[in-house]
Specification:
The protein is α+β, with helices and mostly antiparallel strands. Helix content is 14%, strand content 20%.
Length: 128
């Protein structure tokens, strides 16, 4: 893009970089080494890499750690008053549940981390 003098400061990756549309994951076939890719893009022309992170809808998947341990076991997803898990319907990752960001006694854990902590991006910088 730099050789063609196209104005571009960032490369945005939508949901297709994820493994099966699971937030906080990378598709290992499409992106075998995301850290190196991000570093290479920066070195080739100062490109920033931006990935969509949409923890509003967490894919219902019993093999997916964010769903299983981060929410279901810790009761961090939105539930009905009787305690039954609220399933928000089918969106881009399939059937989804939603972190309860208003829960005070037990803050939601998404991607293995408390939502009250910062996440780390590929460059190693903290995101608040």
């Amino acid at each position: 893009m730099r050789a063609r003098r196209l104005p571009c400061d960032a490369i945005y990756l939508d949901i297709h970089y994820m493994d099966g549309y699971r937030v906080f994951t990378w598709d290992k076939e499409r992106f075998p080494n995301p850290r190196r890719m991000i570093k290479d893009l920066a070195a080739q022309g100062g490109f920033k890499t931006v990935t969509i992170v949409d923890p509003g809808g967490v894919k219902m998947d019993g093999h997916y750690e964010v769903f299983r341990a981060g929410g279901v076991q810790r009761r961090n997803f939105i539930c009905y008053p009787d305690g039954e898990l609220f399933v928000g319907g089918t969106v881009w990752p399939g059937r989804t549940v939603f972190p309860d960001f208003f829960e005070r006694k037990n803050p939601p854990v998404v991607g293995g981390r408390s939502t009250r902590r910062s996440f780390r991006c590929g460059s190693g910088r903290n995101l608040e």
